[in-house]
Amino acid sequence: xxxxxxxxxxxxxxxKRERIGPIIERLQAxxxxxxxxxxxxxxxxxxxxxxxxxQTTDVNVNRVTATLFEKYHRPEDYLAVPQEELERDxxxxxxxxxxxxxxxxxxxxxLEEYGGQVPRRLDELVRLPGVARKTANVVAAELGxxxxxxxxxxxxxxxxxxxxxxxxxxxxxxxxxxxxxPREHWGIFPHLxxxxxxxxxxxxAPRCADCVLLELCPSSRV
Length: 222
Ligand code: SF4
Known about the structure:
By secondary structure, this protein is mainly alpha-helical. 57% of the residues lie in helices and 0% in strands. It contains twelve helices and no strands. The chain has helices at residues 3-13, 16-30, 43-52, 58-71, 75-79, 83-90, 96-113, 122-125, 133-142, 153-161, 170-180, 188-199. α10 crosses α12 (188-199). The radius of gyration is 19 Å and the shape is elongated. Iron/sulfur cluster binds at residues 161-162, 200-201, 206-208, 211, 213-214, 217, 219-220.
């Protein structure tokens, strides 16, 4: 897209600080059902689900955890079986060797350092083996204490299209969003973008004519 066109488009929609409130409001009205698609009943199940969701779909994870969580309840249960058995039990989520190793390492640390509980602070969560910042952000947000903004492929694409960031690196995008999005919305905001990205602002062919953000978006193609 030519630079002059991008500049014109940004001028047309106005500064992002003025647009962010209406963007959140409209997305909340449009996707009232937005939320995490993973199924879990406890903090430990949440953590395991999010760890399993790397490089696969939430639907696939839910299929696996429907039986997994009947067998494994507490952190001790993941350590009571040989690693190969856990690998077989999570095989369908892909990358099963690394995931089994990470889950067992995490469960051992939960028992040794956190009394078997899932910690709530981001700096503690990222210490758990195999728990990167994105996983930690998702878990903290679901535990009701968001301390960052989750950036996945949908969040990155929509933040760029909406002119909320000029960056491509997830860490820099998160920094931009933390400055822009009011803290009370840090938990829900990624879900809103993810659901809008799946339903309307599709990667290849965004459905701008049906988009509630049309006049607020510098990338609209209508
Ligand atoms: S107007 Fe188009 S590009 Fe902008 S958010 Fe909506 S669907 Fe995406």
